[in-house]
Amino acid sequence: MNCGGNYLKSLDVSKNTALTQLNCSKNSLTSLDVSKNTALTQLNCSKNSLTSLDVSKNTALTKLDCSINPLTSLDVSNNTALTELDCSENQLTSLDVSKNTALTELNFSENSLTSLDVSKNTVLNELNFSNNQLTSLDVSKNTTLTKLICDNNRLTNLDLSKNTALEDFECINNDLTNLDLSKIKHLLNCWSYNNPWIYLKLPDGDIYKKLSPITYTVKVAEGSSKIPFTALPQGFDKKRIKADSVEGTSLEEDGFKWNKSTGLIRFKYKLWDKPETNDAKLREADDEESGFVDAELRALLEVVGPVDPTKPEGKNPDTNKYWTVSFESEDESKGTVAAENTF
What we know:
Elements: E1 21-23, E2 42-44, E3 63-65, E4 84-86, E5 105-107, E6 126-128, E7 147-149, E8 168-170, E9 178-180, E10 189-191, E11 199-201, E12 208-210, E13 214-221, E14 226-228, E15 255-257, E16 265-270, H1 280-283, H2 287-290, E17 292-304, E18 322-326, E19 336-339
Parallel strand pairs: 1-2, 2-3, 3-4, 4-5, 5-6, 6-7, 7-8, 8-10, 9-11, 10-12, 13-17
Antiparallel strand pairs: 14-15, 16-17, 17-18, 18-19
């Protein structure tokens, strides 16, 4: 039964007990009772205004699409036959899929989940959890994954050593510093920009990759003339700096030489290693293909004590507090107060 794309505000299917497929998407439904439709195998109620959905009696369901609704909870513990579940663009804060061991596709993007356990979903092929609030996710049991999308979360670590079947991978806008993709031999697409990368190990072969310049922010004490490498995220390797690309400073053994007038420090940093080759054309590849991306170092000066009001830092009458000043260019006069009374 297909009644999608209308202006329905209500729908009564209580007498249709033999119904196996129902598409009522793109309507204006605020409620839907499918408790009598126990033969349903496919249900699409996406793009409505459902605030709740009870599918506990629909144990034959194999496909459920309830995306783009204002659902705040969803119980699929009785739907053990599910192979595809799309509950994206709702208001879910939790989701239990431990009983849905037959799932091959799971999309819960654009919700408010902070954690999820997919260890029981061992036959998953596609997983999309973009636009949530996850800081970690264990996908070590999901060895059949071919597509993984985790953009716009708060991931600081992601172990993909067991996900060797991956073909499409996106991790845009996270907090990842290190990632090893070397065991994934058939990776076709890799989108990973807006992460504070230190090291990214890619597989051999050509893949379409999208990376963005790295930006580090460090704090430097007043009067200091050096930004030590130890102030940068753990794993930063001086040997991966392209020496002739450094601008706005000089490279020393244990750090960058720095002072207030330096402003932004720019350099090229090698995120991934290009396999050795004898092909002259490949040896002459540009910086991006060789693994180098632009990096920008924003030095934040911690100023202690009285500050000369004629200086761009402004006036700090409290000698017991710090002001954090960010110099955004090589011109010291363009320094601006970034935060008051940081400590």
